[in-house]
Write a structure and sequence with these properties.
7-stranded antiparallel β-sheet; about 25% strand; Jelly Rolls; Arc Repressor Mutant, subunit A; about 280 residues
Length: about 280
């Protein structure tokens, strides 16, 4: 059993691949790359997932799958007086290789890796809900039971989603892709440059070299500029409030965002609001 906790956040593992997370604070925001497929079931709370081409909102009872090697901003909120609480199952590449080794499956490589929602599917809900009692167990969780639960989840997903083999049985790593196109679509994610490099199929050194060649500036300067431009558009054209903008465009806190914004444009974010 692996557990971490503080006053506002608790994370309980029954195995390295199965965890229960609980957020008590107003919100929790992070940018992540999903190196493994993640199957998530919400017990309570609400989550907003922001990707380059689409935003998602998931609520109590929702079940969804996030494919691996995806870049996203995740904002978790408590809701209706209840904490943000979810069961998460990692479907690792090693586990899936083991599952598919005896199956004659040839996945299509061109399948779009989008988040897949399964609503409140009774089979998946039953599978994931059956894990809850194990989080209160003392001692080591039996690996054979954990393996059976993960295999059960994979089997259910294959039954209810006929296209899932094209996702699960594709074990390719990111290839070197067009750097300019990728960065223009994903600049709002507050990730390390090493992770940006990984997702474009480059080492950190090669990423920095190719970036300067493409944009004639450093990655950090370019990212700050792009994020401020997006924030300015959201504030002036969409009339969103600064508190609703700074997280979505890649800044860590509101005061830092306001300071950088004023330094760059010469006026505060709030001054762009018509009713300010």
């Amino acid at each position: 059993m692996y557990n971490t906790s503080n006053m506002d956040f608790q994370l309980k593992y029954i195995t390295p691949d199965i965890k229960l997370s609980c957020y008590e604070d107003k919100l929790f925001k992070t940018e992540v790359i999903f190196y493994h497929h993640m199957l998530v079931w919400f017990i309570s709370g609400e989550t907003k997932i922001i990707q380059s081409d689409e935003n998602y909102i998931f609520k109590k009872g929702d079940i969804f799958l996030i494919p691996r090697n995806q870049l996203a901003t995740i904002i978790n909120y408590p809701k209706d007086g209840l904490p943000h609480k979810s069961v998460v199952m990692h479907l690792s590449t090693d586990r899936l290789r083991e599952f598919y080794v005896k199956l004659n499956v040839k996945p299509k490589t061109a399948v779009t890796q989008k988040i897949r929602s399964f609503n409140k599917h009774p089979l998946l809900e039953s599978c994931l809900a059956s894990l809850i009692p194990y989080f209160d167990m003392q001692g080591t969780f039996p690996e054979d039971i954990a393996s059976l639960k993960i295999t059960e989840a994979i089997s259910i997903l294959r039954t209810i989603d006929k296209d899932i083999d094209n996702v699960f049985a594709n074990f390719e790593e990111p290839n070197k892709i067009d750097l300019v196109d990728f960065m223009e679509k994903n600049f709002m994610f507050n990730m390390s440059l090493e992770k940006f490099g990984y997702l474009t199929g480059r080492s950190f050194t090669t990423f920095k070299r190719d970036f300067r060649k493409a944009f004639n500036t450093t990655p950090q300067r370019w990212l700050t500029q792009k994020r401020l431009e997006l924030a300015h558009y959201q504030l002036s054209e969409k009339q969103k409030h600064p508190v609703d903008v700074y997280l979505e465009v890649g800044f860590e806190n509101l005061s830092h965002f306001s300071y950088i914004f004023k330094k760059h444009f010469g006026y505060t974010p709030s001054s762009l609001l018509v009713n300010y």
